[in-house]
Design brief:
547 residues, alpha/beta, Glucose Oxidase, domain 1, Enzyme I, Chain A, domain 2, TIM Barrel, eight-stranded mixed β-sheet, eight-stranded parallel barrel, binds phosphoenolpyruvate, binds magnesium ion
Length: 547
């Protein structure tokens, strides 16, 4: 049996399946027998217990897991939810039922909001299950215990599960639900565990079946042949060797330099990226700092954050992106209108231009940080469509004192007009996630069209080539900062198409560094030509491999 989903990371694993236990059965909606006061006291106690447990687990786990678990503890104690639970108990529900209904109603609301908020709905469901388990006095559902390493198969993983995964035991994650930005995906990426999410038939995999979970192809193959297992083991060894290799600057086998940069969402991630050999930052996603903000951040708040980031990179390049609000990353202070198709809506630079003061404040804060540190700050705008928008952003950035100002190539029109754009922009950085979404007209958040979200598609590669050629003609940098740069084989092709730098999640740096070091520029160009001539994404992969 071969199942397919969306691969996260480039890793591969082979091992027996262990299934995550199913969620607790839905609490009955029979009338409560206890009086409301006693039910309420029991629920309050259970909530406190669960919140304390999550916080304590966070303390033990530390790092990113701590933030995730603290957020879950906060959800458990949310006063709006507590009020809703109380009123449901007062209307005659049992405590369990009231928790179930109140959390489900809140989950529905988050799901309807779509994007990032919808993915937080899973987290809320997990908190509800924990509270109900505490009320029943049964163990909370969670990752199964095992003496042997295993491949974990689940509907989806909640933060409390992913944060505490025993990395010695869990070889890979396979989930039925979840998209490329779900918690499972984020944590799998940061911990370098192969994961395949959105595998529709995942729950048909029986406990104990041996499978190969290959994130590079997004496939899960049951009962693999000995040859396949041997091949997988060889790939695992190669990845281990790459991870253990000395950290050097990115370069091809013939010495052509290809700086390897990090994608970051908070200054807190800088130290770990440097340790993994990041030569700078190729994409700092500023909107991640303000996802929960109700009002626009002030110049002072932003200056503090950007200065904290730049201080980690004296003498090094740091590319900061202006707020990219909308679609999968809504910011309430920038996008409050209901839109039928938010990915095609007032997002990125379009939203900033509609509220120019917010953009001016951000660029001013960046100028302050530029003046306060020795980092080489580059600033770029997301979702730019053409040379007119480029001109608008670049001239505003320069007016406010920024030195190097460019644009992201995410909308196909920008690639088509690359020569015009590069006449004005100091540089272009290609966001392959959105460029793929818009080129193939497939919502990147939607599991049903996930197979279209493949940056190997020759249509995407041809747009990258147009940008690479225009960059070479203008003598300007053309970086890649989408997930495509984290795929070692594709990274080589992108360099062959003219990319001058590659930026990625820091966990991917070692694999990409190793692949570049094994390829000359001539070989990279031959692979790029072969991929460009293919008719589908999978043919492009094969053609590049064979070239
Ligand atoms: C992209 O679209 O490729 C990109 C890097 O931006 P984001 O993933 O934040 O939209
Ligand atoms: Mg993007």
């Amino acid at each position: 049996m071969e199942l397919h989903g969306v691969g996260v990371g480039r890793g591969v694993a082979v091992g027996p399946v262990r299934r995550m236990p199913d969620p607790l059965p839905e609490p009955s909606d029979a009338e409560r027998e206890q009086d409301a006061g006693a039910e309420l006291a029991a629920v309050t106690y259970a909530i406190e217990q669960v919140a304390a447990e999550l916080t304590a687990k966070g303390e033990r786990a530390g790092g990113e897991a701590k933030d995730v678990l603290e957020a879950a503890a906060m959800m458990a104690k949310d006063p709006t939810l507590a009020d809703d639970v109380r009123s449901r108990i007062e209307q005659g529900r049992t405590g369990e039922r009231a928790v179930f209904e109140a959390f489900a109603a809140f989950q529905d609301m988050l799901t309807a909001m779509g994007g990032y908020m919808a993915e937080r709905a899973t987290d809320l469901g997990d908190v509800a299950q924990r509270i109900i388990a505490a009320l029943r006095g049964v163990p909370a559902p969670g990752v199964p215990e095992s003496d042997e390493p295993f491949i974990l198969v689940a509907r989806d993983l909640a933060p409390a599960d992913t944060a505490l995964l025993d990395l010695e035991k869990v070889l890979a994650l396979v989930t039925r639900d979840g998209g490329p930005t779900s918690h499972t995906a984020i944590l799998a990426r940061s911990k370098s565990i192969p994961a395949i999410v959105g595998v529709t038939d995942a729950l048909n995999l029986a406990d104990g079946t041996v499978v190969v979970a290959d994130a590079a192809t997004g496939s899960v193959v049951s009962d693999p042949s000995q040859e396949v297992v041997a091949e997988v083991r060889q790939r695992i060894e190669q990845r281990k060797a790459a991870a253990a290799a000395p950290v050097t600057d990115g370069a091809l086998a013939d010495g052509t330099e290809v700086p390897l940069l990090a994608n970051l969402g908070s200054p807190k991630e800088a130290a770990a990226a440097l340790e993994l050999g990041a030569e700078g930052v190729g994409l700092f996603r500023t909107e991640f700092l303000f996802l929960d903000a109700q009002t626009a951040p002030t110049v002072e708040q932003q200056t503090e954050q950007y200065t904290a980031l730049l201080q980690h990179f004296p003498g090094k390049k740091v590319v900061v992106r202006a707020l990219d609000a909308g679609a999968d990353k809504p910011l309430s202070f920038l996008n409050d209108a209901e839109e039928e198709n938010p990915a095609l809506g007032l997002r990125g630079l379009r939203a900033l231009r509609a509220t120019e003061q917010i953009l001016r404040d951000q660029l001013t804060a960046l100028k302050n940080a530029q003046d306060a540190t020795d980092a080489d700050l580059w600033v770029m705008a997301p979702m730019v469509a053409d040379a007119e928008e480029t001109e608008y952003f670049v001239s505003l950035g320069k007016e406010l004192g920024l030195t190097t100002v460019g644009v992201m190539a995410e909308v196909p029109s920008l690639a088509v007009l690359a020569d015009q754009v590069l006449a004005t922009a100091d540089f272009v950085s290609i966001g392959t996630n959105d460029l793929t979404q818009y080129t193939l007209a497939a919502d990147r958040m939607l599991g049903s069209v996930a197979s279209y979200q493949d940056p190997w598609h020759p249509a995407v590669l041809r747009l990258v080539k147009m940008l690479g050629d225009a960059g070479a003609a203008a003598g300007k940098a053309v970086g890649i900062c989408g997930e495509a740069a984290a795929d070692p084989q594709l990274a080589v092709v992108l360099v062959g198409l003219g990319a001058t730098t590659l930026s990625m999640t820091p966990a991917a740096l070692a694999d990409v560094r190793a692949e570049l070091a094994a390829t000359t520029l001539e070989q990279a160009r031959a692979k790029a030509d072969a991929a460009l001539a293919a008719t589908t994404a999978s043919e492009a992969r094969k053609a590049a491999h064979g070239a």
